[in-house]
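Researcher: Predict the fold of Acyl-CoA thioesterase.
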Amino acid sequence: MTRAEADSLVEVLDLDRIETNIFRGWSWHTAPTRVFGGHVAAQALIAAGRTVAPDRPVHSLHAYFLLPGDPSSPIIYDVDLIRDGRSFTTRRVVAIQHGRAIFHLSASFQRVTDGPEHQSPVPPSPPPEELPASLPEELPEWSLPNGGSIEPFFSRYLDVRLAPTEGADGSVQQPVWSSHGEPHSPHQRMWFRARGTLPADPLYHVCAVTYASDLRLITTTLLPHRSTDGRTISLASLDHAMWFHRPFRADEWLLYIQDSPSAAGSRGFARGEIYTADGRLVVSVAQEGLMRVHS
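Model: Structure tokens for Acyl-CoA thioesterase follow.
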């Protein structure tokens, strides 16, 4: 059972509440062969947030991808009300399809409190207005059951502009999408924003960024291992963590800085920092993924 294509991220995030703490989310018939990790993470977070008082924004989440999601079936989100303290609220969410858990998320929410502040400075990057608005020609298209093809699934919901990075030798590296080619420094940068205008509710904005945070991040681990000998490396996300430092709007430009400090034991580790256009660090991200080499 599928629902017609969602026209905006708001439609993706608007879950059906089928019991007090149980929600149903949808995929769509033009999704890839598995549910995008950011999709299920964003829906799980909005399910958790719908059980928390609005004066307690989320400050962190930690999640595990257990099984590939089936885009042809709805996803059930079962929210466990772990704790409601004086300052912090904790929720655990299990995403279920076909009677099996496919995803697990724990999220912590905090009453807004003032305290000391500092942050890393934003790295220099060309503004999004100076970067190409169209997707690169080498970006692979998803195959549809009817044999056709579509634009990448995220382009319906996100405006993405890829930015150049700096190599280890100080040279400028142009962005890449393909796993084939010369090795590349494990750094990527992109600007993104949700298409259209999101509602004022801050939960939509953190969930929109949760959706976008899974885009390209794990592929950063692949860049130093690009080759031209026909060898390929498949990637699968294992876990995902996010920390939300400051308020922001996801329908305004955000700069996503990505790097990978390590790959070992068939696992690659990637980190991300998300800044507003005026240089505020608003989100930090970490992800580990499985890397399998195929000759």
